[in-house]
Fold:
Amino acid sequence: MKFRYKKLLSSLISENKIFVSFRLPGDNSYQTIIQKKQKINFIDSFNNIDNEKGFIFSPFHENIENKTVLIKPDIVFNNDSIINEIEKIPGNFVKEKTFENLFSISKEEYLKQCRKMIDEIKKGSFQKAILSRIKLIEKKTNYDSVNLFFALTIKYPDAFIYLVNLPGLGTWLGASPETLLNISNGRAKTIALAGTQKNTGQAEKDVVWEKKEIEEQNYVSDYIRNIFGKFNIIDFQQSKTSTKSAGNVFHLQTDFEFNSEKIKNKLGKFIQELHPTPAVCGTPRESSLKYILKNENHNREYYSGFLGTLNLNNTTSLFVNLRCLKVLPEKLALFVGGGITQDSIPEKEWEETCHKAKTLLSVIENLPIK
Structure:
């Protein structure tokens, strides 16, 4: 069955059909959603999102080129489904953009941007901001997006693994460690995930955190509690902050849970308040976002946006789009970033992005030869 499943996904990509295949954290099965109408469905407003169903793919920041997409759940199947009907869907031969405004950012440039951001923080413009970069790597002859998708599901059982294809917007893959929002059985859950250090094989309980990383995580926790106040969410549960392993790195994580009735018919507004969190943008949000959009010399596109199922089987499972890449005609564009504060050391921040890039690179480099 797995061979047939791989063959199906490969044909969906080759025929440029609108689809997403994913594996939820801790799950053993894959799910695939295919839209029959081969025209991308953009969401113009989050106001009525409570009534929508499907798979949502949203950028870091909405602009002319990058808008929120909703893949309609015309066909939803898992490993054991009959797939004959899928073969009847016509292919989509939208001409992809030949020009890609994506380029690798050198270490020298990243350090320069980092120092500039630290100076701005010390001036009091904001407390924290995320500095991202792109790493372009050549496609090897053995590269295959479907093989990478399945390899990621094996390597990272506790991550959200996805493969999405959108004509005109490209093919994206990722292994996200961060939940944005999960709603199921009357309960809503979100997490504060921030602070990063290299995973050298030690036990999670033995990881020691410095002031800078602890403050980063506190910014996100405070941000979430502030949003709860806006929605009159008082009776929430908050876990102790703990260390979480995420591939090649460790993070600090705090879990939050509350009654989902509090955001009934307000889902769109709640998501807009929640995203982008200080973990992918900064704090305060308005000033850090303004700085990022003005000073980062690349378009993040869908990196550090969010994605996942929306109101399917009475469940919403959204994740932050981290540890991801975009497939280009001859290269792969890996997106990585890190939180910058006044205590940041530029060289260490660069090293952090290198460790994060290895989450995908370590799997890409070991793909089987065709």
